Amino acid sequence: MNNRRFARTAGWLALPCLVAAGLLAWYVTREPATPFEQEQAGARFEPALVSRGEYVARLSDCVACHSLAGKAPFAGGLEMATPLGAIHATNITPDKQTGIGTYSLADFDRAVRHGVAPGGRRLYPAMPYPSYVKLSDDDIKALYAFFMQGIKPANQPNIPSDIPWPLNMRWPIALWNGVFAPTATYAAKPNQDALWNRGAYIVQGPGHCGSCHTPRGLAFNEKALDESGAPFLAGALLDGWYAPSLRQDPNTGLGRWTEPQIVQFLKTGRNAHAVVYGSMTEAFNNSTQFMQDEDLAAIARYLKSLPGDPQRDGAPWQYQAVAAVQDAPGAHTYATRCASCHGLDGKGQPEWMPPLAGATSALAKESASAINITLNGSQRVVAAGVPDAYRMPAFREQLSDAEIADVLTYVRSTWGNNGGTVDANAVGKLRGHTDPASSSPIILHMR
Amino acid sequence: MELRINQKAYQVDADADTPLLWVIRDDLGLTGTKYGCGLAQCGACSVLVDGNVVRSCVTPVAALVGREITTIEAIESDEVGKRVVATWVEHQVAQCGYCQSGQVMAATALLKHTPAPSKAQIEAAMINLCRCGTYNAIHAAVDALAKQEGA
């Protein structure tokens, strides 16, 4: 009798558990809906659609992760860190064996906008599908046409991730998606004009600016994915660089930049305020300079509409002149190593060599960008096929941790700059992390 | 654009961001100024702009319109520059000589601003690199020039 009652109770308990497990199994492997369910694979596309797709690929900067220098374009391979181990970008050429050659448009859509590969396998959100979900149906179709017809298949097998079992199970990502990844494409705001909406679309969607410029939460989620959240594009630390605020913060953001200056920066890599450096060099070399003028104008219009935060940003910077070279530590290093280009007055030689007076890297509390560029210099900025005439050299071999700390403290506390002091230990740490020969090099996180 | 170099006007056809060094060496044939590192690190390309020492490899030419540029070719028409060159010869400073055009420029600029620099000031200002290691001779020559002034 007791046994039968136990079995019955257990049965009643097991049933909901089984149902819950069944529901979970369905949820974490289900293939999201796509408007392209009926489209057949292997369709031929008009050249105009393929070239439109090539432009969407530029907007989306697919090459940033899916191409390695010297290898076949879009054949994958870039190593990226996760808290659990390294993963590698995949081959997205139309190779049928190792690439995405067998993908239907529906498969492609599910991967790009929802992070779900054929069979329900979840992609890691290093693929910015929480941003790409905003892409329009038309742009997805054009992008598919480009990847199927616009590039050569490359037979290059994907590199498996370093993440050990059981952490390498992909299904929990579906739960992460349920919490953090939006599911809707971009919907135009009726109270804003077409230019603003186009800018919002590019910034939030294909441009995925927030991948670097929006701070991330504990679950590596971007804290906001559009202008409704104050952390959206408010500046974030990653890969040894501080990606500054793109909001209207006069010190750490774009508050002092005009719309034409934003356009000029994205189109030519430089303006009177700054020159691209760090991770932005790649975004410029591969993506922003190829954007059409009206799209750049739209981005500028949208970014200028994002309010700053005086609490976070502090009192607006104002230039303060200094009399000759002072006796401060770092002042002599500045005069001898930095002033030839950046000027004793810190004003640089706009727009060729950026001013340090009022520079974001000298006003932000985070000193990572200032340290990193001093240690490692800047990468080649290639605008319209022409490499830049001037380039920040690396001081890794010439200046000690203490000398770099002193000269950056000088830069960050002169001409009205108030970023604050730089600690020699912080320089030493970043020196180690950015040395490719070290045992703990920085591996890129997100792009 | 028009550039004033060694008190002569030159018509120059160059992009705004072309380094001054390219223009004076390649376009105008004033090859006394040397290319060393191209990164403002060594000082071999030093010239004077309005009496201040400037590294011409990192100076976009467009910024120099309307300013007075002096290169090593005309340094002896400057009173201070003439003394520097004479002292350089007297002290036999040059070894291979590649950096010396820039060294003379740096010394001239220093003495124009600080006629009798102290040893510490000489050390702080004479920072151009010399692969032959003529630093002792350079410092001795500038020190002698400083003492001439003081005497």
TrEMBL record, chain B:
<dbReference type="InterPro" id="IPR036884">
    <property type="entry name" value="2Fe-2S-bd_dom_sf"/>
</dbReference>
<protein>
    <submittedName>
        <fullName>(2Fe-2S)-binding protein</fullName>
    </submittedName>
</protein>
<dbReference type="InterPro" id="IPR012675">
    <property type="entry name" value="Beta-grasp_dom_sf"/>
</dbReference>
<dbReference type="InterPro" id="IPR002888">
    <property type="entry name" value="2Fe-2S-bd"/>
</dbReference>
<feature type="domain" description="2Fe-2S ferredoxin-type">
    <location>
        <begin position="1"/>
        <end position="75"/>
    </location>
</feature>
<dbReference type="InterPro" id="IPR001041">
    <property type="entry name" value="2Fe-2S_ferredoxin-type"/>
</dbReference>
<keyword id="KW-0560">Oxidoreductase</keyword>
<dbReference type="InterPro" id="IPR006058">
    <property type="entry name" value="2Fe2S_fd_BS"/>
</dbReference>
<dbReference type="InterPro" id="IPR051452">
    <property type="entry name" value="Diverse_Oxidoreductases"/>
</dbReference>
<dbReference type="Pfam" id="PF01799">
    <property type="entry name" value="Fer2_2"/>
</dbReference>
<dbReference type="Pfam" id="PF00111">
    <property type="entry name" value="Fer2"/>
</dbReference>
<keyword id="KW-0408">Iron</keyword>
<keyword id="KW-0479">Metal-binding</keyword>
<dbReference type="InterPro" id="IPR036010">
    <property type="entry name" value="2Fe-2S_ferredoxin-like_sf"/>
</dbReference>
<keyword id="KW-0411">Iron-sulfur</keyword>
<keyword id="KW-0001">2Fe-2S</keyword>
